[in-house]
Amino acid sequence: MSTLLPSRPPRAVVLLSGGLDSATTLAMARDSGFDCYCLSLDYGQRHRVELDAAARVAKALGASEHRVLRMALGEFGGSALTDNAIPVPVDGVQPGIPVTYVPARNTIMLSLALAWAEVLGSRDIFVGVNAVDYSGYPDCRPEFIAAFETLANLATKAGVEGAKLTIHAPLIDLSKADIIRHGRALGVDYAVTVSCYQADEHGRACGICDSCRLRREGFSAAGLGDPTPYLISPQESTRRPELP
Amino acid sequence: MSTLLPSRPPRAVVLLSGGLDSATTLAMARDSGFDCYCLSLDYGQRHRVELDAAARVAKALGASEHRVLRMALGEFGGSALTDNAIPVPVDGVQPGIPVTYVPARNTIMLSLALAWAEVLGSRDIFVGVNAVDYSGYPDCRPEFIAAFETLANLATKAGVEGAKLTIHAPLIDLSKADIIRHGRALGVDYAVTVSCYQADEHGRACGICDSCRLRREGFSAAGLGDPTPYLISPQESTRRPELP
CA–CA distance from B123 to each of B13, B23, B60, B113, B232 (Å)? Predict the structure, then answer.
């Protein structure tokens, strides 16, 4: 007599910052049938409150596990997100690579996801990078993701032994409005996410950094209500704020 | 009147584990005219004493700076080097990828070196991987290094802005004996290095793990005296040791 065992869903490692994009990515990974293991990095970012948001998002979207690894990238400096001496720009998205770029951050985060995936026996990594309504970061481009996937298959025991590792970047070609529409359809509660580069300890957003601007414009273009508690309203956004 | 300023030597980031290979790599980088910034990773390795060795090596070989970053890869487990429940093999180098392989370790270390290089304005990263007398790790192969170099140039602001980043792996085609001969010629004192996967807190080597075997055979093939304090002598190496 044979017994049919239910097959276990495949595992995926999902990089989760706690922002809008990574929350949507997690919802999409789950919707594709993956058992999701979420990884966040406490790298000395100014907006550490996003890590609390990541924990809420992982729980709300049914992740099997959520880990926060510590890695003091702030010791290297070189970014407005890790060095308090470099102000976060608030005058609107400019051409070129902004000072909020954190050197090699996505390479480091994908490398850590790769390590965990290998231990979990997972062949799938999800990352919420986006090359449309984004901030001009080099490590958010499709060619970067493709190069990392090539590397992953050469770097690991799994790859060498013939398992194909895939780096999924399901948002890469979507506008911010489309990302929000997808997430809403999958039940993402954006009120628990934090995108702002300089959110206060309560998770309130400045309203005027690049990340707030892209988020706000995304909700507006999607024709959906924006649940974000902005400290500066759109009407006031030409004024400089006094942030804590 | 014009003043001729002496040109500063270019900076390089050198990954330094504290073992024989990375010490030789540092000596070669310095010999090539680079101003060397050494990076070690405290990742929860069994043989943490190698980090003390790294500090001694960096000092002895005139590095401008030596940083040790902490990153708890041990939390992922999956390797005899980070999980005390998995014994280090001592029965000789076997075909295939051994349990001392740490998932994605070289990818992670190169990613961190890339971040620091970008902040330092360095275009050169040195890593002591070797594909001849090595332990069968996938991330020690030339195709892995080439893929990481491609990635590095896509991942970073420097790469996008036209600077060519180079990953130097000067040992990749050398035998262990040739590595030792090169290092000796450049003044490396191998007595301060630690290769053993389970060295004790005094830096004494077991003598029978894969790393000890490769090191010992390298000195023998090079016809040079081996300064390593092995706990088990070559004659005894079929016997199992009682390690602390």
Answer: 9, 20, 24, 11, 43
Whether B163 has its CB under 8 Å from any CB of chain A: the answer is no
Lowest-confidence pick of A30-34, A161-165, B163-167: A161-165
Distance CA B101, CA B139 (A): 9
Mutate to test the interface with B, among A67, A151, A153 (most CBs of B within 10 A): A151
Domain assignment present for B92: yes
By residue count, chain B amounts to 244
Closest CB to B154: pick one of A103, A114, A144: A144
Helix (H) or strand (E) holding A18: none
| Cα radius of gyration (chain B) | 18
Q: Which range of residues forms the domain containing residue B145?
A: 11-236
Question: What's the CATH number where A172 sits?
Answer: 3.40.50.620
Helix H or strand E segment including B60: helix B49-60
What's the ipTM? Answer: 0.88
pLDDT number for residue A236: 66
Q: How far apart are CA B232 and CA B240, in angstroms?
A: 9
- Angstrom distance (rounded) from CA A144 to CA A68: 24
| Residue A242 placed within a domain | no
With bands split at pLDDT 50, 70 and 90, how would you rate the model's confidence at B244?
Answer: very low
Interface check for A87 against chain B (CB to CB < 8 A): the answer is: no
Q: Is A65 on the interface with B (CB under 8 A)?
A: no
Dihedral pair phi/psi, residue A11, rounded to 5°: -85, 145
Structure tokens at A78: 């070189």
User: Is residue A5 included in any domain, yes or no?
Assistant: no
Task: Please state, in angstroms and rounded to a whole number, the distance separating the CA atoms of residues B155 and A105.
Answer: 9
Tell the burial category of A84 from Cβ atoms under 10 Å away from its Cβ (0-12, 13-18, 19+).
exposed
With respect to residue A94, please indicate whether it lies within any of the assigned structural domains.
yes
Q: Tell me the angle at which helices A20-31 and A49-60 cross, rounded to the nearest 10 degrees.
A: 20
B226 touches chain A (CB under 8 A): no
- 3 state DSSP class of B115: helix
Domain count, chain A: 1
Strands (E), chain B: 11-15, 35-42, 65-70, 124-126, 166-168
